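A protein record pairs a chain with a discrete description of its three-dimensional fold. The following entry can be read in just this way.
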Amino acid sequence: MAPALLDVHGLRQTFPRADGGELLVLDGIDLTLSPGQIVGLLGRTGSGKSTLLRLIAGLMEPSSGTVTYLGQPVNAPAPGIVMVFQSFALFPWLTVLENVQLGLEALALPEVEIRRRALAAIDLIGLDGYESAFPRELSGGMRQRVGFARALVVHPNILLMDEPFSALDVLTAETLRTDFLELWGDGKLPIQAVLIVTHNIEEAVLMCDRILLFSSNPGRIIREITINLKHPRNRLDPAFRDLVETIYVAMTARAPTPPRIGIPAAPVATSIDTILPRVSANLLSGLLETLAGEPYNGKADLPVLADELHMEADELFQVADALQMLRLAESEGGDIKLTESGREFVDAAMDGRKNIFQRQLLSSVPLAAHIRRVLAERNNHLAPKSRFFDELEDHMSAEAAEETLRSVIAWGRYAESFAYDDDSQTFSLENPT
């Protein structure tokens, strides 16, 4: 086996919390990247994958552990490691050619050489003829091609890709993935290895030689899966589908926790500082109705459901997690099935559904019960958002606290458990009894 280009050992990343403590984002990460490999980092939102990519790129310093590239520690952006971002990150006032040349200008190469290599990269990535165009004149797929060209023009050893296709429509993403894999397979890309962050299970199986599965909060590598399928890969190949199913099963496996009678093992909201998935009540209702109907009749295979609903795995996992927190459905082993409360919800009329949702919300989501209790105890039945935000920020990032409050506000409104005025940022209780 060729020596590793990249070695990550014992990597741990924390961020300061408002209460003076630390928020653990990554814990005990070990990985290697060797020439000729495409390695995927796959996990749910909050698993720290993008943070890991930035640590490897030298854009951040780890709290502990090491990142080593070609035997040297990475303490700052390293020549030979480049990144392609989800958001294109182009300079709008520069042309395609000027955006691509930008990375070479820092290398102090002769102007003629800069232009030659930039034009070659533009041609390689399929944008010949667009050298003088500005980003505003390009489609999303073409802008991402510029991002690839800008990364490849410096002839890096390692290409880091942070969800590079997720901002594109399905057809554009498919075309760009196919073109990239063809160039990689033909040896035309001036890179030795790729590390890609993705939420898309099929994308990972389609592109990668190895997949590292991450847990969330904090991010840990829980499993490594080797993909031995030849390129080009066929999504309809039974071996391909088996790998997709294997990953779904691994990502819905229950954590080894002590059994609790009548309560799903995971995920559950065990305290007010549990991070809640950002899912609307309408989406929850829609998935419950889909599960209850034909052909599922209360139980569905998650990969099949994702295909049928045209949802990416991470989006479907978020909905499944929310339903499990509310004990309206359970997911395990790659399947999702309705609970008795879930069936009761589907069978009920509108008012009945609201009552059932309120019952499940207040009994299963401690934050919702906490907000209602605080409002009920106050004479005016009002409380500022900051009252709860500050509590949450003691245990999670400000971004996670904001998302969690947005989720509980949406669920509380649907259940008519409490109201929220966004202008005054105030919670209220119309019926305290």
